[in-house]
Amino acid sequence: MSTPRITVGLPAYKGADLIGKCLDCLQRQTFGNFEAIISVDGGDAETAAACRPFLADPRFRMVVQNVRLDWVGNFNWLLQQDLREFFCYRQHDDTTAPEFFEVLLQAADKEPNAAAIYCDNQYIGGDNIEIAQSIEGETLCRMLRYIELQSAVPVRGLIRSVAIRQAGLVRSDEYRAPREVFVWLAKLVRWGCFRRVAKPLYYRLDHPHSFTSEYWRSRQDRLQAVWTTLFTGLLEAAMPLCRTPAERRFFQQLILERIVADWPTTEPTPAGKIIAACMERLKFEGNTHLFRPEELPPILEELKCRPDKVLKRSRMRRVIDRIRARFRIAKLIYPRSRIQRVIFQIRQLFETLRDKMSWLLVTGVIPYQRKMAGNAQRDRAKSDTSGGHS
């Protein structure tokens, strides 16, 4: 067999009851020219034993980590291996359609500038489908769109190794890095576009003991602390692209507004308090060069004019804000050409309409992040009413 085109990275921990289905699914792929590296975390003997029967397949190999790396350490260990043309991250409790690799590779070969090629995610045992629209265009525009849309769906597709080398490793933090995959994907989108294949070929298992489910059931103070790490991470992804003070200010304000608007809370929180927490986190990480103190006052001045609109955005308000953002970024990308700015804005409008039509065509779609956040907030509210603990 020729050199494999895909390296499947499969971090596993306490997955003895589920990993067999995952590995069997890999063996059934219609495109078989891949290699699979299973990294069993924390010396988990049961999971390792469940994997051993599959090692008879020469495409599979297993490494048992003697120490607990946790998900981000295990993921980063896999990223540091000798990756082939594409890297495919596979969670031990998920499966795919047999044609998953074949379909995504066909799309990837048609678009060599795509950093990530992925499909829609179908939740096992339900009708919900998670989708992430394609992201294309100029580099600054791609970063804008990813910060607006923030989805982890692209990480479950095929990712070009050359894009991974540019993005580097996933950041770690003291909260087990629950939002750092979004930061990593923001760094990937700097290399190239994200391409969606509109087919539900990836099957996700949604269960109460998953890392994501447990994260959304966390105490509110932990959720808010994690949100400040997302603020610093997105700045780390976006600032290297900025060539002028105007571009820096655009992305600093965009990220700050997004963090404030999506702040996880069950009661009103002053925007000033949120911003102070974010800036304190920036200082704690030693990253104040990403958002210098003297750069904050002009942004604060604008936020003072519309704090309620930032904190409580209706659907219509979000659409208006996105139109404003595209108008502003068009002026940054094409400062000397009004015609190019108009063409850019028309193209962006058509892409927005296309995306909305895609959402309408996929029935039963629930943005997973918001669903989990809403469920967690309702659970906490019930707990507070009954005197229980989250």
Sequence stretches where pLDDT stays below 50 over 5 or more residues? 363-371, 376-390
CATH class descriptor of the largest domain: Alpha Beta
Q: What portion of the residues fall into strands of 2 or more residues?
A: 5-15%
Give the % helix. 40-55%
CATH architecture descriptor of the largest domain: Alpha-Beta Complex
Instruction: Count helical runs.
Output: 16
CATH topology description of the largest domain: Spore Coat Polysaccharide Biosynthesis Protein SpsA, Chain A
Order of helices and strands: EHEHEHEEHEEHEHHEHHHHHHHHH
Strand count:
9
**Distance, first to last CA:** 53 Å
Question: What radius of gyration results from the CA coordinates?
Answer: 21 Å
Structural class: alpha/beta
CATH superfamily placement of the largest domain: Spore Coat Polysaccharide Biosynthesis Protein SpsA, Chain A
Number of domains: 3
Largest sheet: 9 strands, mixed
- Arithmetic mean pLDDT: 87
Tell me the overall shape: globular
Outline the secondary-structure elements.
Blueprint: E1 6-12, H1 19-27, E2 34-40, H2 45-51, E3 60-64, H3 70-79, E4 86-89, E5 95-96, H4 100-110, E6 114-123, E7 129-130, H5 139-149, E8 158-160, H6 161-167, H7 180-188, E9 193-204, H8 211-216, H9 220-238, H10 245-261, H11 271-284, H12 296-305, H13 307-311, H14 315-333, H15 338-361, H16 368-386
Parallel strand pairs: 1-2, 1-4, 2-3, 6-9
Antiparallel strand pairs: 4-8, 5-9, 6-7, 6-8
